[in-house]
Design a protein that fits this description.
The protein has a seven-stranded parallel beta sheet, sandwiched between helices. A five-stranded antiparallel beta sheet has the order 8-12-9-10-11, with helices on one face. 29% of the residues lie in helices and 25% in strands. The chain is an alpha/beta fold. Helix 11 packs antiparallel against helix 12. The chain is globular, with a radius of gyration of 20 Å. The termini are far apart. Belongs to the SIMIBI class G3E GTPase family. ZNG1 subfamily. One of its GO terms (biological process) is cobalamin biosynthetic process.
Length: 345
């Protein structure tokens, strides 16, 4: 077998904050079809919430030791420090993995990451099977890239020469521009007209033929996503993005911090406070785990703007610190004190 044939395929899953990447990946892990999978999760912030959600799957196809979390910094900015060591760790595992899934931070640009697959130390061992962008259907139908960012609707224009200065808009456009497949999430919330509007918005950022696949609750057949065999690293220079002329980039347009909360007695009341805080302070995303008084189960809280989901995901482990912590992500200048006050109730 030649070295190129022996290379392990990697699927890069990108997408804006709260678009549904983690839900879709969990479905893939639970329906792996005999593949031995490994997962690299790049969390924005200091608490590995997405990794914890995925580790809770308990599926044989991707055991917990095959999940590597990178919690410090955006992966596309820290390729050498974080990505290569993570690959080394995964490729050394026995039995050998058949496929690697990389979940990027919601703020990550896929192009610098894919370009790293051209490095000699990487290229000989792995290849980019495909780049998958997950997009929020209802938000796009409303003319936005995220459900809570109403201000972005007015900034979208038909004129292709219009300069979109908003950093979130540019991140979204770069992710779609690099995609080989676009997953239109939450499609069950879209009627025919909304589906048409969302599709138009996606197509406005595509320079080539890319399939758009509707999905509900993250349910996408893994055979649609895995095994594309595209060797994207060989074509990535042809995928034009906003940041092509930049030697480097930083996500200085975003703030992220952790809010510690006391145990709660009523999850619904907490969800209301989370929604109110997100709406009043223009928070993009909140997610974390919460201890509920008298409950042996851990409460998972995820919010995209004012839209909040919460459920008990698993029992607290013996000896586990039952702290309540939420990661808060927003645009630069987010008022931390005001967010903390709103969450405290």
């Amino acid at each position: 077998m030649t070295a190129s044939l022996a290379r392990v395929p990697c699927t890069v899953v990108t997408g804006f904050l709260g678009a549904g990447k983690t839900t879709m990946i969990r479905h893939i892990l639970e329906n792996a079809g005999g593949r031995r999978l490994a997962l690299i999760v790049n969390e924005f912030g200091d608490v590995g919430i997405d990794g914890e959600i995925l580790k809770g799957c308990g599926v044989d196809a991707c055991p917990e030791e095959n999940i590597v979390e990178l919690a410090n910094g955006c992966l596309c900015c820290t390729v050498a420090d974080d990505f290569v060591p993570a690959l080394d760790q995964i490729l050394a595992k026995e039995p050998k993995v058949d496929h690697i899934i990389i979940e990027t931070s919601g703020l990550a640009l896929p192009k610098p990451l894919v370009q790293a697959f051209q490095w000699p130390s990487v290229k000989s061992r792995v290849t980019v099977d495909g780049v998958v962008a997950v997009v929020d259907g209802p938000a796009l139908a409303a003319g936005q890239v995220a459900s809570d960012m109403d201000a972005l609707a007015a900034q979208r224009a038909a004129d292709e020469t219009l300069d979109h200065d908003d950093p979130v808009e540019e991140v979204f456009e770069d992710q779609v521009a690099c995609a080989d497949l676009v997953i239109l999430s939450k499609s069950d919330l879209l009627d025919a007209e909304a589906s048409r509007l969302a599709a138009e918005r996606i197509e406005g950022h595509l320079s080539r033929a890319v399939k758009v696949v509707p999905a509900s609750q993250g349910r996408v057949d893994p055979s649609v996503l895995l095994g594309l065999g595209l060797a994207v690293e060989d074509d990535i220079e042809n995928r034009k993005t906003h940041h092509d002329d930049e030697l480097d980039h930083e996500h200085d347009d975003f703030d992220s911090f952790i809010v510690e909360l006391p145990a709660v007695s009523n999850p619904d009341e907490l969800a209301s406070r989370v929604a109110a805080a997100a709406e009043s302070q223009n928070v993009l995303r909140m997610k974390g785990f919460v201890h509920v008084d008298g409950k042996p189960m851990r409460l998972l809280v995820q919010a995209v703007g004012p839209r909040v989901n919460h459920y008990f995901d698993r029992p607290w482990a013996a000896g586990e610190d039952r702290r309540s912590r939420l990661v808060v992500i927003g645009l630069k200048g987010l008022d931390r004190a005001a967010v903390e006050k709103a969450l405290a109730g």
